[in-house]
Amino acid sequence: MTPSSDVINIKDGEVTNSGDKPDTVNSNDNSIDTIRSKDLITVLPALDEESPITEFGTDQPEHQPRPLSVAAMLTVLGVVFGDIGTSPIYALRSSIIVVSNHHTNIQRWEVFGIVGLIFWSLILVVTIKYVTLVMRADHNNEGGILALMSLAQRSFKTTRGKIILGIVGIAGTCLFFGDGMITPAISILSAIEGLEVSLPHTGELIIPLALVILFGLFSVQSKGTERIGKIFGPIMLLWFSTIGILGLLEVIKQPFILWSLSPYYAVAFILHHQWMAFLALGSVVLAVTGAEALYADMGHFGRKPIRYSWLFFVLPSLTLNYMGQGALVLTHPRTLSNPFFLLAPHWLSIPLVILSTFATIIASQAGISGGFSLARQLTLLGYFPRLRILHTNAREEGQIYVPDVNHALMIGSLILILSFRSSEALAAAYGIAVTGTFLCTSTLSCVVFNRLYHWPIYKVISVFSIFFLIDISFFTANALKIPQGGWVPLLLGLVLTVMMTTWNKGREIIIRKRAQSALPIASFLHRLPQSKIIRVPGTAIFMTPDPTSIPTSLLHNIRHNKVLHEHVLFVTIENLKQPEAERGHRIAMRQLAPNIYQVIVRYGFMEMPNLPRVLELLKSQPQMNFFDPLQASYFTTREHFVMSPIPKMSKWRMLIFMFMARNASPVTDFLRIPIDRVVELSVRVAI
Q: Which of the ends of the chain has fewer CB neighbours closer than 10 A, N or C?
């Protein structure tokens, strides 16, 4: 194989190495400049006046506002609100226990204060911050912290500003992964703990049952969520109706609990207890876990179904249940051990445990599926190596299964259950992941509303300072729990951040190295007519990461096989820093020489690549009537990285990068190229 520092020249059908640089062609004479993406439109300077650029095609329908319907709202219930909807199982109990640990005789106004803190957290954090404000910051109708990061980076011209915002977005994303690992463990564990209410001697069965359910949940991920997804909505409808009615019945019995909705008691609780109230905030935040899902799933369902479902059904149901639990604790202090399940009559205990188990499985499923999508997005953004992605639904691109992510989440969740052994102990690890993500979202939102939506700085400060105060209070309160388990998501986030930044930096080094030793396309085309390379029938597609130079796979093919196909396509995948490619700009194509074409295929970070399907769009061009992507041969290069005598990164980071590269999925799998059409050539690269 040819060292990466050599220059490969073509002469009389042979490929030779030369220590000298090939003839260069200046920008005024047939050069191909670097492709840059600006506002989703790639500008490709033509080789000459007869090689114009053709941009066309999209395999995604243009976004239209989602209609508000009962079916849409039912689907939203089953996917979006699972996490926040199961918080009543443990949130109020954990908050009141903080007070009871300091003094056993809990007074009425203190319970009012805790219920009030939970209610106003739902109003300020979920309703006003996320549902009203943050969901306005959509990127082509897509939501989530990566979309918000992309929006914020668009508003900055300087590289330094974009890097800082990227670090904030990646940190929030890593904490979201920690949240996705803890959610299945704490949700399923808290649901199974309800068995002790009706069957007091079943405590020893809680851990084994939780492990079995969790293992079963992760084991069926490869089957896809289409079938079970059809019943998610009705189950969550039954869930919210049940917890709302149970709470309402207790409120009717004890109407004095309505006073807890007054902000007076929440403020009085904070002012009177101060330090203890600060500690209680670490548990109060459990009531708003899952708020990020409302924003992340906006692209799937739209704003209106999420907003209306929250305002007119989910929020009232949660509020009634929290008030009902508070009234029950005041009238029967012994129910503090598990007020959620004791809120139900005895005959309903077992059915409620079964229903809560299904609800927590659904809540866990949403986090797991979100982890799959997030891993795919990070891959397309260049922060993670290619992963093996399996499609579980031929009609829905978003329904995917990522084995590596699934196994990592499963092992992590199982270890958490075996280590912490109770939902109360796991709450310490849960809160800091959630509140860290809240802080990252608030930071990026400030930038977006100021620089993109042109809010004056005083308005941004006056509005978001309230949310920052709340987020910082929640985060610091949970930071006190770092020795008790808060270190888990922080450690996981740190490890993932190191891996992502290492992979991103390694890719940049490889790109620079390729550019230094690349053979320009113009130089190759200039020498091709004088060469004696044999042209054989058929179509060859050469995958190349750099559209300005000849792919290494072509040079190796000529060196070893001494031939070039009759029709040649140089195909480059351009990963955009936005959710989707714009309609009409999926492909940029031009003819470089007779029967030789350059093709740029664009994908956003929320899209699923399928190269053969996209290349079908080329048939619409008159000059491409010969083309069949399923009959073409795809030539790729598999790079084997070795450490150079003078590495460009520290040795430990280089080892991490090389480990990730060795375990990356082949590009052909990621692009869904038929394996029987692939010709793979290996090359050794020293970095």
A: N
Exposed/middle/buried for residue 316 (C-beta within 10 Å: 0-12, 13-18, 19+) = middle
Six-digit token pair at 471? 């987020």
How much is the pLDDT for 265?
Answer: 94
Per-residue pLDDT for 77 more than 60? yes
- The closest of 273, 295, 290, 19 to 179, measured between CA atoms, is 290
For the CA atoms of the chain, what is the radius of gyration? 29
Residue 636 per-residue DSSP state: E
CA-to-CA distance for 33 and 610, rounded, in angstroms?
Answer: 27
Tokens 């130079």 found at: 549
Q: Are residues 672 and 610 in contact, defined by beta-carbon separation less than 8 angstroms? A: yes
Structure tokens at 153: 């980076």
Burial group, residue 648, by CB count within 10 angstroms (0-12, 13-18, 19+): middle
Q: Which domains does the chain have, with CATH numbers?
A: 7-61+504-686 (no CATH), 70-485 (1.20.1740.10)
**Cα dihedral value 392, 393, 399, 401, nearest 10:** 10
Per-residue tokens: 606: 């929320």
* Helix, coil or strand: residue 73: helix
Query: Residue 672: left if φ>0, alpha if ψ -120 to 50, beta else—which one?
Result: left
Q: Is residue 637 within 8 Å of 683, Cβ to Cβ?
A: yes
Query: Lowest-pLDDT range, 5-9, 255-259, 471-475, 493-497?
Result: 5-9
The first and second tokens of residue 521, run together, are 């396309």
Residues 438-443, mean pLDDT to the nearest whole number: 92
pLDDT at 2: 35
22-36, 260-274, 419-433 — most confident range: 260-274
| Torsion over CA: 291, 297, 303, 304 (sign) | negative
- In sequence order, what DSSP letters do the residues of 500-512 get, joined into one string? HHHHHHHHHHHHH
E strand or H helix that includes residue 587: strand 587-593
637 against 104, higher pLDDT: 637
Instruction: Give the 3-state secondary structure of residue 369.
Output: helix
Candidates 33, 61, 156, 149; CA nearest to 581 is: 61
Residue 99 confidence (pLDDT) above 50: yes
Query: How close are the terminal C-alpha atoms of the chain, in Å?
Result: 16
Q: Report DSSP state, residue 677.
A: G
Most confident of 161-165, 260-264, 621-625: 260-264
Nearest C-alpha neighbor of 134 from the set 381, 541, 446: 446
Q: Look at the block and give the residue holding tokens 């194989």.
A: 1
For residue 392, what pLDDT band results from cuts at 50, 70 and 90? low
CA–CA separation, 34 and 20 (whole Å): 22
How far apart are the C-alpha atoms of 673 and 180, rounded to whole Å?
31
- DSSP codes joined into one string, 598-628: EEEEEE-TTS---HHHHHGGGGGSGGGTT--
- How far is Cα 367 from Cα 372, in angstroms, rounded to an integer? 9
Contact 576, 40 (CB under 8 A): yes
The angle, 0 to 180 degrees and rounded to 10, between the axes of the packed helices 275-284 and 263-273 is: 130
Q: Which residues partner with 199 through β-bridges?
A: none
Cα distances from 425 to residues 320, 428, 429, in angstroms, run 26, 6, 8
Burial (CB count <10 Å: 0-12, 13-18, 19+), residue 497: middle
DSSP state of 311: I
| Nearest of 602, 674, 610 to residue 636 by alpha carbon | 674
